[in-house]
Amino acid sequence: MFLHAQGELALGSRLKAVSESLYAAANAAYREAGHDLDAHWFPVLRYLQVRGPASVTEIAAAIGQTHPAVSQLAAKLRAQGWITRRTDRSDARRGVLELTADAERKLDRLGPVWCAIRRAAAAASSRGGGNLLDALAAFEADIASGRLAADIRAQHARLKGATIEIAPYRREWAPHFERLNVEWLQRWFTIEDLDRAVLGDPQAHVIDPGGAILFATLDGEVIGTCALLKEAPGVYELSKMAVESGFRGFGAGRKLLDGAIAEFGRRRGRTLFLESSKRLGPALQLYESGGFVHHPAPRPGSHYQRADVYMVYEPEKAARPRAKAAPRKHLRVVGR
Amino acid sequence: MFLHAQGELALGSRLKAVSESLYAAANAAYREAGHDLDAHWFPVLRYLQVRGPASVTEIAAAIGQTHPAVSQLAAKLRAQGWITRRTDRSDARRGVLELTADAERKLDRLGPVWCAIRRAAAAASSRGGGNLLDALAAFEADIASGRLAADIRAQHARLKGATIEIAPYRREWAPHFERLNVEWLQRWFTIEDLDRAVLGDPQAHVIDPGGAILFATLDGEVIGTCALLKEAPGVYELSKMAVESGFRGFGAGRKLLDGAIAEFGRRRGRTLFLESSKRLGPALQLYESGGFVHHPAPRPGSHYQRADVYMVYEPEKAARPRAKAAPRKHLRVVGR
DNA sequence: CGCAGTAACGTAAGTGCTTACGTAAATGCC
DNA sequence: GGCATTTACGTAAGCACTTACGTTACTGCG
Fold this sequence. Notes:
Number of strands of chain A: 9
Distance between the termini of chain A: 37 Å
Strand content of chain A: 15-25%
Oligomer: homodimer
Helix content of chain A: 40-55%
Low-confidence stretches of chain A: 322-336
Largest sheet of chain A: 7 strands, mixed
Radius of gyration of chain A: 31 Å
């Protein structure tokens, strides 16, 4: 499922969905057992059952909802004869909600259903190793104490000054090279035979012929890559540039590009070119600001079907104080 | 917190609350980082980012929401320039939603915020032993497969034929005797000195003087209790009858009453009386159907302040084929 | 080919909450 | 004792969904 792949980022969505499924399951159980009540009423009714008559704000505070929520539900329950309301003697603002005798009797009959739900939910909650209830309690504590919010801020502050490290090829990272490239290839194009070959065995297709592969890491985690392919003596191709989609905005692309160009320089290359597609706007912008200029025609023997943009590195064109306000128009014209 | 004490029964409420807190935390993080987007948009926007253009129903299925939800959100996002919609060439019913170049750029800048949220949430999720994400995944699987619903049904079927066992006093259950009685005393009255004494040391105040205490158990779990106090030779008082509020409807009260009367019989008692309160409607109904009849005046030396109902056991009055349709009016008249 | 069945998806209305706001009563403070 | 502040809580409006329903387009089958 897509949301599962998003990990913690989609936690809110998933929790809400599970919450609604639970209400639905409870309602189904009530209906099957012949009880006519809604699972959403549980906190209020149960509070009144175990604690006795209580005011709107008292209940709201106890069950962690706003007072209008309780107020509105109370109006509904009153209309249906579950509760009564009388004004507090010592404080005329306050109302005292109380279960009717009939409601009390109905609730007293719910034991078996509640017990069944509790046991089934407990079993489901503790399946798969951990215990949902315990984990949830810890999570709630972090939210209530503000620790989660503080942690997000702290992490973000740390990450703003985070150092993306550029590291040379390592055999054990070959799967990352494949994974990162497959991601954007599938997203924008299809994987061509040449891709499959290069990604499947980067050692044989990139390193051994005299090329290089760079990896961008954030705190040890590989989040981007690019390859410098050796075409001919002194002629290199920049290719397979990929940054994981959840890790854009760290500047990994720029660092990879700089790293590749530096590598090209170290090898005393004469020509550095690349093939790309006008569909990859942000990447083209990056190449332009890195010193690549557009070339009208494909190189003889162009590799890829998808390629419709050809660029060549011209060092003096590099816009080093990074051109933040680079005119978008330029890109558009190029893209045509 | 009240909801925590309800265990699995309040899980739905709590999950929803956590879900909303998470959305709020994410939104705060977005705002602080200067991004103008809503956490609720994440599933749709992220899907379009990693998977590329997609139709409404495709997205809805992937993120586990209904198609109107996606449709409505899409309309809003379209109005704000995040996505465009064009009609599918091969199927005129279907629309193709696609991120605008601007949106693509905005999303590409979110890496650090996402990473911060992910890390903080991961830390909170795995604090406290278990891991919320794993536990949630297992729980979701049980819901999706229908196992939870089936389990509830199965548990409920089992519990309908469940046997409440009545067991005699055991020293290690003394705390249950106290807990169960404190629950209803606090709910309906206040704890009087005599209560404190009896509940604090049932051995000394009930058993040793020649009385008895019974416990009702469900699958080994103590869920109810009652006491038979010896007042004088042949004279007993039924007292401290309590069934846990979440376990009403199992018939534990009746079994406890029957058990106490049987114990009274085994001891060849002559008189069995009880003191109660007209506020405890269902309990009085139980006593009546068990063979107790109302007595107009308090016994000389009545024990409790709260007592305003006095009953005496008259075996021939026991409505043994349990009087389901016992006239409520009777209770009312008695209660007056 | 014609036509029933189904899929895509927009619109409307409902729901369970929320925030925003107003009013009346109680409280604190000089 | 008067008056600002706070508290209780109802009402209104909004929001993120849902279910219900209708329209239009595609699909499969005789």
